[in-house]
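User: I want to check something. If I give you two sequences, will you return the structure for each one separately, not as a complex?

Assistant: Yes, each is folded on its own. Here is the first sequence with its structure:
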Amino acid sequence: MTFSGHRARKRFGQHWLTDPRILDRIVVAADLRGDDHVLEVGPGRGALTERLLASPAASLLAVELDRDLVAGLRQRFGVDGRFTLIEGDVLELALPFPDRPAPTKVVANIPYNITGPLLELLVGRLGRPAPCRFEKLVLLVQQEVGQRIRARPGSSAFSALSVRLQLLARCSSVCPVPPRCFSPPPKVTSEVIVIEPVPPESLPPLAQALAVERLLTRCFAGRRKMLRTTLAGLLPAPDLLEVAAAAGVDLQQRPQELGPDRWLALATGLNRASSADPGGA
């Protein structure tokens, strides 16, 4: 059981969480039961892994990219029949893994340099569901990312990411994590967040989801502009005003002022009006 000679590597975004109180809070937030199958991304030296295996969880599947950590992890935890370790890049692996129970929860101190694509893999995106349906994800992320995910309309942190994630899941904060809780300490404050994907029946239908995605891309590219400017040309001005009013949207507003429900309503109205008007964009 040794990781002697191994040093945290910047290219892998390695910062080992060492504070036992934060590690315990992560496990408590996961609320692991005897029928849970857990996915851990980037176990590192196994501080969180140890606590996950001390829980009632039925199994733990860990994915580690750094080959120099793999031998130590197998030596440390391989005697536990519930533990499986896969060496590789989680972004290049097919989920769920063949011949293994589909994970029900994700618990991880994720590498900050892959946060965006990893969230897309684990939670999905509008119009493209995740390959695995997780009950809950408990993730350690940069606080800035956590704030953007949880931000409310009107906040400076509110963004297209806020809308996407809040349409796909319920998002909440567990606790902030200062740099001193890591070795080596990162230059930013971190945060433990909980993401609970909504059931499939609560997701927007495909056509509506894709319409929202297109609208978010268009409008947040000019987030300082009023919607009357970014939406100009989609419909004749009187029709655009009518659709916006029906959706509860003021075209004087800017993108960060609309909550997820208003984006859904606006995208649906624009889609319907454009389909009815062959001359619409």
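And separately, the second sequence with its own structure:
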Amino acid sequence: MPSNVNPTVRRRRLGQELRRLREIKGMTAEEVAERLLVSQSKISRLENGRRSISQRDVRDLCGVYEVEDVRVVDSLMQMAKDSRQQGWWHAFGDIPYSVYIGLETDAESLRVYEPQVIPGLLQTRQYAEALINGALPEAPPSDIDKRVSVRSRRQDRITAPEHPLRLWAVIDESALRRLVGGKQVMIEQLERLVELSHLPHVTVQVLPFDMGAHPGINGQYAILEFPDAADSSVVYIEGVTSDLYLEKANDVQRYSVMYEHLRAQALNVEQTRHFIDGIAKEYTRLKTG
């Protein structure tokens, strides 16, 4: 698969274009579904980019929308073809959060708030193994290894020599103090966190307990932004059985404002490094004491 083709992003762009054509035609998703003898939910899934779009789907929709420009139809058909290709993550088999990985792979920047654990892109392999084992106690070792390997591959975006992902992470103090994998694993994880925080495109801030209530009190979320202006920002909220993706401008704006408040309440970069070093030393004393 060509490195510049991301099937997840192609589906999003194609879905946005199909929605635009429908709105220009002045039709509702229900009306389109009735014309094509399909469910309204299928039209919605095609437009939000959450399912693959076949070239036949594109041809049928272009017919309903009376698209006469052959170049437009051909472009949409090519996007549909690209959207059915496989990303690097498909080599690992069925990954439940593959949609998110596709978005992250193409994102230019990522802002994440984590209240419970170290963000995945900043985890050591030992920490990731212990964390996933704890979260999925009934999963076979092969599944654990697959998830850890995918997480390690995702981290290539952080260390890439060209166009690395710009990452801003606000981490709650509880994530630093939760003993995952033992004291030595935590020491190495915290050292890794400080090390990565020195990269010019990585910013890490800690939100200590004594800050009290804050806008992120309801849980984890991430905001992904993309280099192409045609791709709207996405708020990602991870769930146990399903994930939530918010793309409406008002939703993204609301979470962005919340994030600005989190950044303002958190320790600054230098204070954060000292704070993390202090907790790492506590683990060292407990280990040797």
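Because they were folded independently, the notes below concern the second chain alone. The mean pLDDT is 90. The two ends are 53 Å apart (CA to CA).
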